[in-house]
Design goal:
heterodimer; A: 283 residues; alpha+beta; Aspartate Aminotransferase, domain 1; Arc Repressor Mutant, subunit A; Herpes Virus-1; three-stranded antiparallel β-sheet; 38% helix; B: 325 residues; mainly alpha; elongated; ubl conjugation pathway (chain B); MHD_dom (chain B); tumor antigen (chain B); MAGE_WH2 (chain B)
Chain lengths: 283, 325
């Protein structure tokens, strides 16, 4: 019986390795297992790190084999992970579009992955920060505003000084990013919690007009209000000297960032500030 | 067996369920994927649905409205039960992985309390399937121990790595190389008398093939890493040097660096780099020694005050006869 690869994947069943021999899901070898273990350890990895990781796993377990193309390698693993409601998801950093990978939960149980590292009141602090970030115009919540909510936290009472340190802990564990005293979500949090966020805050949540994924930081059209991720803006308006809003066709008022290209040298991060963008913090 | 698909003729939209009912005893053979996306699946293989329905319809006349409704209800209930079982197994796998990260053993009662709930009669099957997933997918063995064998741990089935492989593995994840870069900068700052001009830092990095705005395969964008990340994480201080024209900026150690590493360690690193002994730089060596002495004194003071506080607390509870907390 001839089946296309796509069809085979769609009809993936639970690990039939228990019944003797995988039927149509991908095959796991020690190369894949080590890869998964290490990816889990790090939480989130940038693409160049993931490639190094993949090569490392081959070197340890199967020196002679040819290193499979990363996308196929990951799809293979994902077909096995499907029955466990998890997958290796690819995303991009919101500020300059660097590709990142994380192992995410497909069944939405919110901040469950953080639960092992944080106490109840700390998790609640994260939730409060998350709400402020989602509600904000810029995708950033100020340290002050977060700390002012310290009295409302569930669990053991937390002082502001302590809360400051907890926020730093979130930064170190790659759940939040800090920029000049303000906090936004790390790409890890966006990857892992997108579903949870969309379900929990359906009214407040912002979506990118181009890729239709969750949007925390981005640019917005001042006329019709649609929003776009910075890397999505970069790709959409690439080499377009007169950028116009895809929705209302009005002139796009913000500076167009550059498409992420690891080979090219360019202005790294920081203040992509034109006077216009400064006004609205470029959202 | 392969009949002409007449998808329009199927009276019940849950024809997909018939397929599940067909393989009653094989609980492993089901996944969420079939259940989450019913419509494309329906359109894709209506032939199988027809075949399954034929086998199922032996007892009840599947063609009467009542018969087909009962059939559908049964299939739906069965499907729900399988789905629930699958989800519980998946949740247990995740629960075990998360708990194992903390290196704490997991008890059966914890599993029942947080994951399994009222499916606890099916515990043996659930844990067996979870164990198989952990073994096949992640390379972990679920081991039991304890008197009643109700405590579990995950054991990595991989053998320990060769040294060079281990080093390579530790290097992954960005932190290693980035912290290496940080230590180079801390070293430069220290050797230049606890502050280094920005131009000096970039000059050193240029010699290492690192340019500020060129994406580096180990460090990402170095300018962002150093000027933003390291400064925000308090590893480095960055300030303008007063009375300089054109204005120059300098780096110094940030408070986190002072907490996480010592001058002596950084001097040791610089010495190794130059294949010399730390004493080769007498000024810095003396300073590092003094720093070590300071740290030892501070540590002793902290320990003493902790002991004093503990004693005071003990006395207070003795007097009050109750715990103050």
């Amino acid at each position: 019986m001839e089946e296309g690869r796509a069809e085979r994947r769609r009809r993936t069943e639970a690990p039939s390795h228990t019944q003797g021999g995988p039927r149509r899901a991908g095959v796991m070898t020690d190369v894949h297992r080590r890869f998964l273990q290490l990816l889990m350890t790090h939480g989130v990895l940038e693409e160049w790190d993931v490639r190094r990781l993949q090569k490392h796993c081959y070197r340890v377990h199967d020196r002679t084999a040819a290193v499979e193309e990363l996308e196929d390698f990951i799809n293979n693993i994902n077909s096995v992970l499907e029955s466990l409601y998890i997958e290796i998801k690819k995303g991009a950093t919101e500020d300059d579009g660097r590709p990142v990978y994380a192992l995410v939960n497909l069944a939405t149980t919110s901040v469950s992955k953080m639960a092992s590292d944080f106490a109840e009141n700390e998790l609640d602090l994260f939730r409060k920060a998350l709400e402020l970030i989602i509600d904000s115009e810029t995708g950033f919540a100020s340290s002050t505003n977060i700390l002012n909510l310290v009295d409302q936290l569930k669990g053991k009472k937390m002082r502001k000084k302590e809360a400051e340190q907890v926020l730093q802990k979130f930064v170190q564990n790659k759940w939040l990013i800090e920029k000049e005293g303000e906090f936004t979500l790390h790409s890890r949090a966006i990857l892992e919690m997108e579903q949870y966020i969309r379900e929990t805050y359906p009214d407040a949540v912002k979506i990118c007009n181009i890729c239709h994924s969750l949007l925390i930081q981005g640019q917005s059209c001042e006329t019709c209000g649609i929003r776009m991720h910075l890397p999505c803006v970069a790709k959409y308006f690439q080499s377009n000297s007169e950028p116009r809003c895809p929705h209302c066709n009005d002139y796009w008022p913000h500076e167009i960032p550059e498409v992420f290209d690891p080979e090219k040298e360019r202005e790294a991060g920081t203040s992509r500030a034109t006077k216009r963008s400064l006004r609205s913090r470029q959202h | 067996m392969l009949q002409k698909p007449e998808s329009g003729a199927l009276p019940i939209p849950q024809a997909e369920g018939e397929k599940d009912g067909d393989r009653d005893g094989e609980t492993q053979a089901l996944t969420a994927s079939q259940n989450e996306v019913p419509s494309p699946f329906l359109q894709e293989s209506p032939k199988e649905d027809l075949g399954a329905r034929k086998e199922e319809g032996a007892t009840e006349s599947a063609l009467t409205p009542k018969g087909s409704r009962t059939l559908a209800a049964k299939a739906l209930a069965r499907r729900r039960a399988y789905r629930r079982l699958d989800r519980t197994v998946a949740e247990l796998v995740q629960f075990l992985l998360v708990k194992d990260k903390k290196k704490s053993p997991i008890t059966r009662s914890e599993m029942v309390k947080y994951v399994i709930g009222d499916l606890k009669d099916l515990f043996p099957e659930i844990i067996a399937r979870a164990a198989e997933h952990l073994r096949y997918v992640f390379g972990f063995e679920l081991k039991q121990f304890g008197r009643k064998h109700h405590t579990y741990i995950l054991v990595n089935k991989f053998k320990p790595l060769e040294e060079e492989e281990e080093v390579e593995e530790e290097d992954l994840g960005g932190d290693g190389p980035r912290l290496g870069l940080l230590i180079m900068i801390l070293g430069l700052i220290y050797m230049k008398g606890n502050s280094a001009r920005e131009t000096q830092v970039w000059e050193m990095l240029r010699r290492l093939g690192v340019r500020p705005s060129k994406y580096h395969f180990l460090f990402g964008y170095p300018k962002r890493l150093i000027m933003e990340d390291f400064v925000q994480q308090r590893y480095l201080n960055y300030r303008q040097v007063p009375h300089t024209n054109p204005p120059e900026c300098e780096f110094s150690w940030g408070p986190r660096s002072n907490l996480e590493i010592s001058k002596m360690k950084v001097l040791g690193f610089v010495a190794k780099l130059h294949k010399k002994e730390p004493q080769h730089w007498p000024v810095q060596y003396r300073e590092a020694l003094a720093d070590e002495a300071d740290r030892a004194r501070a540590k002793a003071r902290a320990e003493a005050s902790m002991r004093a506080r503990a004693r005071a607390r003990a006395r207070a509870t003795d007097r009050a006869g109750i715990y103050p907390w």
